[in-house]
Each structure stands twice: as C-alpha cells, then as structure tokens.
Amino acid sequence: MTKLKEKIDEFVAIAKALPENLQVICFELLLRNHLEQITGSRPPKEPPPSPSADPVPPTETKPPAEAGAKQDDVKLSDLHLKAKKFIEKYGISLEQINNLFFKEDSQLKPLYDDLKTTKMSESQIRVTLLLALRAALTTGDFEADVEAIREECTVRKCYDGNNFGNNFNNNKSFFDFDKYKRDVKSVKLSELGRKQLADTIKDLQ
What we know:
Helix content: 40-55%
Number of strands: 5
Order of helices and strands: HHEHHEEHEHHEH
Strand content: 5-15%
Low-confidence stretches: 52-61
C-alpha cells in the first residue's frame, strides 16, 4: 500500500503541473495504466446479454457521470475566443464539437472511442490533435502535454515507444518545432496542424 500511495502522490504531482482541464484525465490515465501493469489485466468486460433478450439498437450515449457530476453539451459560450475563431475559419459546427466532447461540471471530457485509423503513427497524431483541441476550447492554446499524449496512446494501444519521437518529426509541419526532442514537454499546433485538426474533426463524425 505504501508503494501505491507513493505512486498516487507522484501522479497527483504530475497532473497538477498540467493545465486544469487536463489534470483529471492525466491522473486517471496514469493510475489506470499503473494498476494494469500491477495486475496484468484490465477490468472485466460486462457479460454479454442473454440470448433471450430482445436486441437493442446501438445508441450514442455519454459515459456514466460520477456521483453528483452534472453533464451538459458544450455551448458556444463555453468556448475561448480563439477556439470560436478556429471553428468559424474551418467550418466546424458546435454539433461536431459535441460529437467529440461533453462537459462534466466545468471540465471537458472525450466522447470519441474510435480514432478511425489502424496505423499507430496516425493514431498518435490524432490523439495529439484532439488533446490540443480539448485544451484550446477552454484556454485558446492549441497545445498538448507530451506525457498526456503518451498515456492516452498507451490506453488506446497505439503507443510505439521506439517511434514516438519519429512520429512527431515525420509530421513536424503540424507543429511549431523544427525537430522533436526528448526534453519537449508539450507540442503546439502550427497553422497547418490546425487545418489537419479540422480535417480530423470532420473525419471522426
């Protein structure tokens, strides 16, 4: 238990170093990944429905809310001015944003599960673009924390440790650096990267 508590304290410290809207998801990803490494397994899946049960057509539902949490659609008034200018420039509708995110209390959380690609490198870039979008909606900064990217890629099984940096360098026109280096803490989208983000938003609808 002492080691687990130390890890939790470490994860809390890492999360607190991030923008407020990323802190909860970062902590959850770190803790989930750590627990999976310890147990060597993922949480059990729900049992399949009884054969006698009537089939229920799939519906798009939001993740269950935590006790006492209030869930809402993202409203235009929730968006930072820079985010509003972005969606206007690239013809993104508020409905498309709400297909990707929902608001729980004051935080934005993801709705999307499928990145609609089987390529690990492309999945990493899409994770990065969407994390940058989530930050920009509230802060105006199209920027993603590298550790948050790494953790989400791990959870989505698209983390390639040997090529993590190469994937950024192979797509460096999307970012505001000449070359990705290991000491980079966050990546910021270039104008071309924002255009790619807009294309990704439309592709995930």
